[in-house]
Amino acid sequence: MDPAEHTDAATGDLLSKHEESLSRLAKQFQQSEQWVGRVNDTLTAIQATLARLAPPAASSEPSSPPTPPSQPPVGSVRDPAPPALTPFSGELGRCGGFLIQVSLLFRRFPQAYSDDASKISFVIGSLRDRALSWAESYLALHPLETISYAQFIRDLKAIFHHPLRADEAGRQLSGLRQGSQSVADFSINFRVKTAETGWADNALCGAFVNCLTERMKDELATRDEPEDFEALVDLAIRIDNRLREREREKDRGGRTHGNQGGNVPVRTEFPASHPSHCPARADLPPADNLEEPMQLGRAKLTPVECRRRFEGRLCLYCGRSGHFVASCPPSSNRSTHP
Q1: Phi, psi (5° rounding) for residue 175?
Q2: What 8-state DSSP symbol labels residue 93?
Q3: DSSP 146
Q4: pLDDT tens digits for 169-217?
Q5: Which residues pair with 50 in a beta bridge?
Q6: Is 0.85 topped by the overall pTM?
Q7: What is d(CA 290, CA 278) in angstroms, rounded to the nearest whole number?
Q8: 329 CB-near residues (< 8 Å, 6+ apart)
Q9: Which of 240, 211, 207 is nearest to 223 (CA)?
């Protein structure tokens, strides 16, 4: 066969196939248009039915606000991962607080800890040292799938949770002392113990005052009796804060007056001609013990001013330099100012 004839035959076959494909596509497109038309007719009929069934909207009533999106429930899977707790190592006195934190976390993330096995696993994961050693031996005897969370916590408390009896807590409370603490700091330790005693307000008031320093007791004795324990603690804290503030003010004032004469001590020598009015080279007596000399206007010198005049070799009467009180010019009028 001639090659040209073979090529023409192949081309004819290919064109025939294309024509058949186009014909099929045209037929499918026509069917799709018919299907879309039927869908539109159905939607139109549904809208007409809904329009007949819906009640007419009142024009005078304002449109209701859009409903806010519902918030995800507490503890849902959208919440962040539960925080890690401070590990419990089996210290006496810490078991109760640790279990409170655990219960609050389970309440905050209920979906994350929805069964007993997950709760027990979390608690064991927060144990350390001897508490973890106990859990290891406990699970060897009680497989995780055979125990409930309530039973596990009950057995944990039996080993590590030993709260004080009321009488023992009362003895510890009575043995507390304020010491050098502020009343605010001491009241925190006192309140921690009061929760275990169950005492009434009047008993707590007496115990609290008994634990304070003698100075605080004297201050409270001059005040009206507070109505209850909380008022007593508040009053004691305010008094203590004020007393400590006054002590700081006096310390600052003493340092300020002490530096007026200079930082370098001065050795003062007085002439021998005035032995009765000026001390010798011996150390000066404390300012509090110095006799206050007279000053112009019948005023008296303060201990600090008296010491300043001694150290500066000034006249004790007029405060000027160059002479002493025996030869002070203004002292000639002292007879008129006894």
Answers
A1: -85, -5
A2: T
A3: G
A4: 778 788 889 999 999 999 998 888 787 777 888 888 989 999 999 999 9
A5: none
A6: no
A7: 12
A8: 318, 323
A9: 240
